[in-house]
Each structure stands twice: as C-alpha cells, then as structure tokens.
Amino acid sequence: MSFQVALSFEDGITRFVECNSDETVADASYRARINIPLDCRDGACGTCKSLCESGSFDGGDYIDEALTDDEAEQGYCLPCQMVPESDLVLQIPTTSAVAKTAAGSHVSTITEIVRHSDTTIGFTVSVENRSDLVFLPGQYVNILVPGTDSTRSYSFSTGPTVEDASFLVKITPGGLMSDYLSERAQVGDTLELTGPMGSFFLRTQQRPALLLAGGTGLAPLLSILEKMRADGSELPVHLIYGVSSDADLVELDTLHKYTELLPQFTFDYCVADQGSSAPNKGYVTGLIEPAHLDDGNVDVYLCGPPPMVEAVRQHFKDVSITPTNFYFEKFNTAATPAPATELTEAERAAAVKAAAETGLPAVSASVATVDIGAYEIGEEHLPVAESDAQFDARMALELGAMELTIGRLTPAQLIEYRILAENSAASIERDRFTDAAAFTETNALFHDFLFRCTGNEILLQAYHRLEVTELMNRILRTADWVDEHVAEDHLHIVRAFAENDRTAARELIVAHSEHAKATMRCAIADNHLSIAQ
C-alpha cells in the first residue's frame, strides 16, 4: 500500500510523492529526487523537523533533543523517522530551491474559451499526463502567457479529480493575459502550467463552512465546492459572492447546480452598483448573517482583493465573533500593461475598480502599484492562549464558588452534583471521547451547577460572561482525545465536597483546569492540522 504525501515548501511550491507504507517520508522524497533537509537520518538531530498538517503516521524512534513531546503534540514530526498511515500534508521548513526541486511543469491545450461577459473570460485546458497534475482544491498554477516570457497566476475553478482544468480571468485593459485571451487565444493553443502552488485549500470538514468570493476569487471556491461534492459532504456550506457590476457576475448557473448536488449548500450574491438589477446591492459583509457564523463554529474561506479581506476581518470584530478557522487568499487584480511599465490613468482607474470588485468602499489608486499577479495567503485560528485564558478565568471563579458552597450543599444537591459528574464521565473511555458532543453538554451542566448553588447572582453572571462553553461547543464537539484525568476529576471534586475537604477540593479544581486546557489544546491543534486530500 502507498500513500500520497504533499510537501509544501516555504516559497509556495507543493510537490507530491508516493510513499509506501513501509518506508519513511524522507526515503520516499529522496527516491523522487526531492532533497528535503536531512542530516543524521536517525532521529537524533532534528534537522528534518516539519509540521504535519494532515493525516496519521507512525512517528518512529527519536530522542527528545530532536523532537520534544510538546512539539509532537502540536503536529511536528521527523520525516526521517515517520512512516505514513494515511495521505499526508507536510510543511517543509525550506524553499523548493534548497530542496533541489521545482514546481511541476505541465503542457496543456486549450479546449474551450468562454466569454462570460465583457469583464470575465473562462477557459479550459486538457493536460498531457493529467495524472501527474495533482493539486489540492483552492491551489493555483502559474501560466506562461503565449508570446511572452511572463507568467500569471490563476486558481483552478475545477476540482482535483476533474479530467480537464478550468480557470476564470478578470479582463483588465493592457493586461498580458487579458490581451491574449481577448485578442489572440484560439482553441488548440498550447499553454505551459507550472505548479501547483499555494496553501489556500480546503481542510477536512468538521463544521459548517462559509465561503466568501470577490470577483474571479470565485474560481478556487468552485474547486472547493467540487471537492465537497465528490466527497459527499453533508455539512452546511454557504457562499457569498460579491462583484462591482452586473457584467462581473459569472457562473451563477454553476452555483445553482451545486445547490442540487450538495444538499446543504446555499448561496447569495451582491453587486456594488446601486443601479444593478441584482436582488442584493452592496457589500459581501452585508449578507453575512449570524446563522452563517454559528457563534464562531465555522470555517471561513475567503478569496478576493486585499480590501475585501480587511473588511471581512473588521466585520468579525464588529460582531464579536472569531471563526474557528479563517483561511484567506488576497489577490492583486491590477495587470501589467504591455509594453508600458507604468499604468495610464484609465488603467489605474480600472485597477481601483478591480480591487473594489467585491463591493467594498472605494480604495486609493495606489493599489495599482502592487506586485502583479501576486497572491498573499494566510490563515487565522482560535489562539491557544485565548482558550487557556478562558479556562484560567473559570478556575478562578470556581475557587470562589467553592468557598461559598463547600460544607453548605444539601444531601439532595450533592446527589445531583454526583449525577452530573457521572453523566459527563459517561462520554469518556480512558483518554478518548465516546461522544464528544454529549460531553460538551453534560460538562457545561456540571460546571454551571456549582455557580447556581452559590445563590450569588453576580458570580453566576460573571461565569456566564466567560466564553468557555462557547469555545467547547465550537472546538470540542469533533474531538477524539481527552486528558485521561478529566472524567475522574469531576467525581473526585464531588467526593471532596461530600467530605467537606476544602484543601482537596481546591487542589482538584486547579488540577482539573490544567487537564481541561490540555484537552482543548489538542483539539485546537487537530482542527488546524486537518486538511483534505
């Protein structure tokens, strides 16, 4: 048996290698002539240390100096020792040049050119040796513009398993690719693709998703939707698509098709032009409803120009919601005029319009001076520090609640407290959740009980203002691992209350907080490191 391993380098290049179930990732990489960092090959130096973003593996043998337990818990690994147990995605801490490899080069032939509107052209290519072009949904390739020595970057609008590959291009006056597609391109032309590239791609679905597209930023999200369809996803996914004018609206038929192919898929679109005939006029942020964010239990994927990314980020702040994961790809839509080296006023105005095509407020003309065809990719996650701080705050309040209640609970209250502890423990077997969703509910009832017993409304309100329960609902419902002490902690705390042992109760509450933080840290790491293949 063999598995596919994606090696993601610091310069955005992704290379895929086949790794047998009985060989290390390092051996498979060198067999493919990809020289990832390596020194000892014995798990002793840590030179090859990488981050595993997805998949399971046997970590092999190594010493603590090469890889600490904390690093291993965070997903780091040693390719010289690890043997795959599934498909993997690794972040390799070097560039492709240092690894003496390069992005794959693929020859393709144009099979279709579609003039969607005066502002957007789509084209499809057949790729020689299609099986060699492996990519993750959301990634892009560089395309050599025929008749030039320049490339432009375009995201796939088709899924990884679709035979032909399609792309969407925003037509910008004076753009090299825009001029080629508008004036010279013919079916049968040869195009050279280099890639895949980029770390903007669909992660394993564990919660609802919100997809946000600006203009031709719709392309990678179409690729993501196709992957969801192929996987038979049943989780809710909503897409909001924003453009500047009616002429910029494309692929609406395709989106309607996915509402039939994906049972939980819905979408909205908006046009900034107030004279538009579209049902929604304005900005993408105006269509984001509370249900789409699910109190933060959502993965957000956004592809659009920089102003759109910043506007959406500000929207999250305004509504005081932090998505579990926020993946974004900023693209610069200005195009280099040929052969001039500076933009004319008309081209500068077109670039400003393009940058605002998502329906955002007007931006400065200086956006036309940014690097052409560049992608800026990033991701934001619920920080571990925030989770730890929430649990520390809960612990402090619980110690106060303990002082107000220990020795004062009635026999009936102690029985109820014990039943709540047993109910929460019922969803755990040693260090594994048997039903993480049920645990989040019973655990919340267990902790809430003590605050209700204080009779102190101010303390109860202070506890309710914490976001511990919300964090657990967002992160823990799909978790597997739990600190093995968590279940017994609850029972021991109840016993300390029954015995009126204040010292034991205090120590147990403090220890339980650490066990809870460890459980959440692992769940957060798992959420961040799960990536679809």
Summed up, what is this model?
The chain is an alpha+beta fold.
Task: Write the SSE topology.
Elements: E1 2-9, E2 14-20, H1 25-31, E3 50-54, E4 57-58, H2 69-73, E5 76-77, E6 83-84, E7 88-92, E8 104-115, E9 120-127, E10 140-144, E11 151-155, E12 165-170, H3 176-184, E13 190-197, E14 209-214, H4 218-231, E15 237-243, H5 252-261, E16 265-271, H6 290-293, E17 299-304, H7 306-318, E18 325-331, H8 345-355, E19 375-381, H9 384-405, H10 411-425, E20 428-429, E21 432-433, H11 436-454, H12 457-465, H13 468-475, H14 486-498, H15 502-529
Parallel strand pairs: 1-7, 14-15, 14-17, 15-16, 17-18
Antiparallel strand pairs: 1-2, 3-5, 3-7, 4-6, 8-9, 8-13, 9-12, 10-11, 10-13, 18-19, 20-21
Structure description:
The chain is of the alpha+beta class and about 525 residues long. It has 4 domains: about 90 residues, Beta-grasp domain (Ubiquitin-like (UB roll)); about 90 residues, Elongation Factor Tu (Ef-tu), domain 3 (Beta Barrel), CATH 2.40.30; about 170 residues, Rossmann fold (3-Layer(aba) Sandwich); about 150 residues, GntR ligand-binding domain-like (Four Helix Bundle (Hemerythrin (Met), subunit A)). It is built from 15 helices and 21 strands. The protein is globular, with a radius of gyration of 27 Å. The two termini are about 15 Å apart. The C terminus is likely disordered.
Q: Would you give the CATH topology of the largest domain?
A: Rossmann fold
Give a short account of the largest sheet. Answer: 6 strands, antiparallel
Query: Into how many domains do the coordinates divide?
Result: 4
Provide the spatial order of strands within the biggest beta sheet: 11-10-13-8-9-12
Question: What is the overall silhouette?
Answer: globular
- Total helices: the number is 15
Total count of strands: 21
Q: What is the alpha-carbon Rg in Å? A: 27 Å
Structure class? alpha+beta
Termini separation comes to: 17 Å
Return the average pLDDT rounded to an integer.
Answer: 87
- CATH architecture label name of the largest domain: 3-Layer(aba) Sandwich
**Percent of residues in helices:** 25-40%
Range of strand content: 15-25%
Which homologous superfamily in CATH is the superfamily of the largest domain? Nucleotide-binding domain of ferredoxin-NADP reductase (FNR) module
